[in-house]
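A common beginner's mistake is to predict each chain separately and then try to dock the pieces by hand. The better habit, illustrated here, is to supply every component at once so that their relative placement is modeled jointly.
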Amino acid sequence: MTDPFVVVGGDAAGMSAASKAKREDPDLDVIVFEKGEWVSYAACGMPYYVKGTVEDLDDLVAVTPEEFREERDVDLRTGHEVVAIDPEAKTVTVEADGDRFEQPYGSLLIGTGARAVTPPFDGFDLEGVFTLRSMDEADAIEDYVDARDPETAAIVGGGYVGVEMAEALTERGLDVSIFEMLPQTLQPFGEETARVVEDHLRDRGVELHLETAVQGFAGGDEVEAVTLEDESVPADVVIVGVGVAPNVELAEEAGIELGPTGAIATDEYGRTNYEDVYAAGDCAEATNVVTGEPDHVPLALTANRAGRAIGSTVTGDPTETGGTAGTAIVKAFDLGAARTGVIDPESAREAGFDPVSVTIEAPTRPHYYPGATELTVTLVADRESERVLGASIVGRDGAKRIDTVATAVTADLTVPELQDLDLAYAPPFSPVWDPILTAAKVLA
Ligand code: FAD
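With all components supplied together, the output reads:
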């Protein structure tokens, strides 16, 4: 009998791999160890649970543990933490209910995800100070807001989770402030997009403290204020969203190599330096399709896709995990902001490009058709080769047009080739020249 396919971590990467492997080879034993109780959950939906758009936390679960066990025949073990990997002996050590046991594997997937970065802020342990990474944390935030009826909220970190939580808590009736160390929010989305979002956040009553370093939190048992260098700002609830760190300790201790980003290094099949050990999702690197270099972009599609590919590979159908363009989109009240590729000039230069860019404003529909709004598009290309490197888009409607540019950067299109794409047009959807085409025309 072949040893089973063992998966560590039961979310996007892990459960995609387990499901795919079982579909491809129903005779293969597939065991998933998940240290928590939640599996196959949409972490991306958690801000909308706090906001109230999603009524029940259970609604964020795509496939329940019972469905995995009974319908997909996956041996899913929640409350089981993998504490060691022995890649030579091909075993993992598992802890559950105070017991420890060894589990042999034929192939292994590390899908341990990432955790919220927790800087050494004073008062991090005060009640009412949260990070938002797990379903339990989403539950705890919701309970706290429900029970204490806070009036003010502080969000530490102006990344996409911070912006989504600013909207969620404002909609819950709180006065929200964002504290961001950098001169702008949404750093990976570029300055032009961030400025539009920031103006909108202010219009919606969010107070922005840019270039502001938080020292810690003050209060009795419960948080009452955020302390800055020379003042303190009242806050009845605090969300710290200052980034994520890949969960690599388990791999590192087993001699599995990390890459330049600090996440687990993998080849195009998601394989680590041990042939039968794979890694996928937020704990692993993926190849950036623009630079060709290893990158760490902890986003859901990358995790799902890589997990699915590895599920095929371990059943004898080698499948590449695919690269990342770092395509992302975020809602900020009435705006959508999106980005793809390499848009930061410094990163582009580091990758050997000579970046040129243009920022345009264009309507999303013809002037005569109701509902037209302005879209701001920043398109970045390499001067010499004219290759499209990336873009950022922001507006009330249509930021999902970023997908056209994501396609262009993945297919190595030049600006003239992007300009020549035959994109769909009818007045209810777009002007004749879609804003992406207009940006390409201006940059060409
Ligand atoms: P995770 O989801 O982190 O899952 C890893 C699992 O492994 C966890 O359940 C953990 O308990 C388990 N585990 C870890 N160590 C062990 C161990 N030793 N033994 C057993 N189990 C272990 N992405 C987008 O693309 N779009 C979005 O809009 C978006 N919004 C987000 C909003 C929030 C608030 C958050 C937190 C994330 C968001 N993401 C978004 C990111 C997305 O959720 C992640 O990219 C995705 O969940 C990664 O899946 P994963 O399986 O790699 O890791």
